[in-house]
Specification:
The protein is an alpha+beta fold and about 220 residues long. The chain has one domain: Chloramphenicol acetyltransferase-like domain (Chloramphenicol Acetyltransferase, 2-Layer Sandwich). It is built from 6 helices and 10 strands, in the order H-E-H-H-E-E-E-E-E-E-H-H-E-E-E-H. It is globular, with a radius of gyration of 18 Å. It holds the Pfam family 2-oxoacid_dh. InterPro entries: 2-oxoacid_DH_actylTfrase, 2-oxoacid_DH_E2_comp, CAT-like_dom_sf. This is 2-oxo acid dehydrogenase subunit E2.
Length: about 220
């Protein structure tokens, strides 16, 4: 028989934090699809160069490029004041047995893709053995959550306060598309965005999601 789930210990802390997030912010979510052709090509090229790059790494690097133009999306809230952050520190949601953590890759705007990938891999490895630092656990300025290994394309990720924004990555699957007037099959990735509507209105949220999708669809640095 399945045992009851007790909201105590780590699970209780997560439950309390998620409840506080929903209760204390005005969360609004947006969704779009991304032609992932450039992402899959870049990942394959890095793999051919014997460097392991994940889709999350490509998204993190892209956030590092576009966020300077969207300061309210890389901001923290305290006592009703939204403060844009000078450094872009992308928190990465990592699922553990009975727990969820989101340690940060720091200063992503000033790191190349292999460095970002290596640092994210280190976070995942150390999260599994409870070796993350307090700074890594608390230093994020924006979060990403990846459900790309499931059949989920779009979802409504919950804000990790005091951040104002979280990006959700869905699965990549082949879909029909019209390219230059002809029907083609392209890999398509679901992209979700949740913002704190107290600080970010619908129009800038749409602009940010559009800019992120456009940047992900553009060519990416390859070896």
């Amino acid at each position: 028989m399945t045992q009851p789930l007790k909201l105590t210990g780590i699970r209780g802390m997560i439950a309390k934090k998620m409840h506080e997030s929903v209760q204390s912010t005005a969360q609004l979510s947006f969704f779009t699809d991304v032609d992932a052709s450039a992402l899959t090509a870049a990942r394959a090229a890095w793999k051919a160069a014997d460097i392991r790059i994940g889709y999350e790494d490509l998204v993190i690097a892209t956030l590092g490029r576009i966020l300077p133009a969207f300061p309210l999306f890389n901001a923290l809230e305290a006592d009703g004041v939204i403060t844009p952050q000078a450094e872009i520190n992308v928190g990465v949601a990592i699922a553990l047995p009975g727990a969820l953590v989101a340690p940060a890759v720091f200063d992503c705007a000033n790191k190349d893709l292999p460095t970002i990938a290596a640092e994210r891999a280190s976070l995942v490895e150390r999260a599994a053995i409870n070796k993350l630092t307090v700074r890594e656990m608390s230093g994020g300025t924006i979060n990403i959550s990846n459900l790309g290994l499931t059949r989920v394309r779009h979802f409504t990720p919950i804000l990790n306060r005091p951040m104002t924004c979280i990006v959700g990555l869905g699965r990549i699957a082949p879909e029909p598309a019209v390219v230059d007037g002809a029907l083609a099959i392209r890999p398509v990735m679901g992209l979700s965005l949740t913002v704190d509507h107290r600080a970010i209105d619908g129009a800038p949220a749409g602009d940010f999601l559009t800019a992120l999708a456009d940047a992900l669809e553009a060519s990416h640095p390859i070896p």
